[in-house]
Amino acid sequence: MLKKLHELTSDESLRFEQKIIAILELGLEKFQQQHAIVSLISGDEYTIKYVVSSDPALVPGLSFSLGQTYCWHTLQANEALAFSNASQVPTIATHPCYETFLLESYIGARIVVMGELYGTLNFSSPSARNKPFSTDDTDFINLFAQWIGVEISRHIEQQKLKQRIELQQQMEEMALIGGWEVDLINNKIYWSEQTRRIHEVPDDYEPDLVSAIEFYPEGESRDTISDALAEAMATGKPWSLEILLRTYTGKVKWVATQGRPEFRDGQCVRIFGAFQDIDTQMSLRHELIEKRDEAERLLKARSAMIGKISHELRTPINGIAGMLQTLKGENNKDIIESRVAIAMRSADLLVRLVNDVLDYSKVESGQLELEEVPFSVRNIFDDLFYLYEPLAKKKGLTLNVDAQFPEGLRALGDPGRMTQIYSNLINNSVKFTEQGNVSLTARIKEKAGREVIAVTVTDTGIGMGKQAIESLYQPFKQGHSGISSKYGGSGLGFAIVKELCDAFGGTVKVSSREGQGTRIFVELPINAVNQEEVVQEDYIGPQNTSFEHVKLLVVDDNEINRLVMESLLSQLQVSADYAVNGLEALTCIERATEPYTLVFMDCEMPVMDGIEATRVIKETYSIDGKMFIVAMTADTSDTNRQACLKAGMDAFLTKPVKLEALRSVLSEVAFPQITASAIPGAR
């Protein structure tokens, strides 16, 4: 019997379930019984897991109350239990199991799995045995039960391991993370399937240590990974790097690689680690950083103004910084893309807000020019919700945005300025509301024969009295002084809203009481258009007018600005010379074989700025005023404009430079009969 048991348990060709059934059949032979069962016991429930029986009613999954089985006595005894003639045992003869199933003989033992009770192994028969169960029989059933317990434990561990492996493979695929191992004893390299996919190698490709290093481009990347590998093998230091990789197909991408050495008897015998494709994350990260840096440069350059309207900038900055922080260590691709999208929208809004603030003098003086571009009306309100919902949630507020428009509604107008109006309103409501909610509703309605967007912003905030409402539209006013000290801000936001609404030809009204919240009504006329009617003129080609005889010089220290000018001029079929500062411009003018007729001059540059360079040109090189100098600057203030004109500049172009404005300047120079007033911002 022991030999049979050994042969059975050591047979690797049998599956787990087959071995259990074979054990039960062996037990039936040993104990001369009709029913063999492995049970699972949970609380008071007894469930058949495996069974060999002549009774077709006994099947896996069949459950009984534990108290109605002989196994209850086995558990109470805490050891193997057996009886050969139940009718002769008073405690068994009256047992529900005997009364129901008339099982005369029984032998059973506990099954323990991982230190916990799993169930029982039991054999039974409706026939009494000719002789009682012996000590040898109880030893055998204990041995059977112990072996089954070990096998179940091993099977559970194997299933867990299989699940972990499958989960790891799924996670590798989702996060683009692979594994690798270098066997330095046998000089072999193992790459997981995901690592092979990242390298884009063919199915039959077998890497070695030399070829694996060659996947990193020569120079910094290859030197960095080689140094990390050498240091790990020499000192045991692990590494974690973000580095460039050139795949088998020639594609260059960013990867994250981690490595850890393993030593034996002082010798490095193995190096293993993880490998992740982070090319998308790095591209997005760099783009976000560039946008953030651009916004920060604008903030520093206009620190005085920003200090007064800080409440308008905090939300998008928080969106950028917060999302960048949460990207660190995040591997889930869907989460990364979602957070990057929020940060990108925040970065775009931040840049727009900064530009809007710098335009406030135009808004105040009524000189603001609204754009006329096609846009999706719904997108404005979707973006507002995604931007301000986290801010409201952080304060424990509920933000509701209910925007109902005809499907696919598009309009011609200025979506940036429109967004600025609604952003100010929501931002103020969130700012001055301590508990409750902020709601925005938006509808299209007809008024005086025109379609308007009717927006209502309602909050449960501190509200305001009649006097505060009257001063609301005045710049830098915030009701009583306690408001400013408690909530901060410049008091400029609502003044901007009022001026922008006037520029749109719309209206803004406020209804509020102290302590009872505020309701703001905004109506802005729009020019709704059908999708097919929207025509976007992204490219304006050169007209019949020729500027070939105009000799140009572009002076700008910024490479991107120079490239933009080169692209715009190429559309007008005009070539130019380029200089990076005022001093270099003077050199170009002095060495020119024929004089320049037109110079585009940036104002702020290192070495020599545009103002000083213009003075020198006008005094020394501009014969009879024939050299036309145009200022190119992002500073639209009157102070800067006057400084440019005082230095001798003839016209004034604001950045970003538009193609039609550039064409007008060239026309003025090439064809003097066109008046200077045709040039945008020329005088």
TrEMBL record:
Signal peptide: none annotated. Keywords: Kinase, Phosphoprotein, Transferase, Two-component regulatory system. Residues 551-670 form the Response regulatory domain. Its EC number is 2.7.13.3. GO terms for molecular function: histidine phosphotransfer kinase activity; phosphorelay sensor kinase activity. Coiled coil: none annotated. Pfam families: GAF, HATPase_c, HisKA, PAS_3, Response_reg. GO terms for cellular component: plasma membrane. It comes from Salinimonas iocasae. The modification 4-aspartylphosphate is found at D602. It catalyses: ATP + protein L-histidine = ADP + protein N-phospho-L-histidine. CDD domains: HATPase_EvgS-ArcB-TorS-like, HisKA, REC_hyHK_CKI1_RcsC-like. InterPro entries: CheY-like_superfamily, GAF, GAF-like_dom_sf, HATPase_C_sf, HATPase_dom, His_kinase_dom, HisK_dim/P_dom, HisK_dim/P_sf. This is histidine kinase. Residues 308-528 form the Histidine kinase domain. The lineage of its organism: Bacteria, Pseudomonadati, Pseudomonadota, Gammaproteobacteria, Alteromonadales.
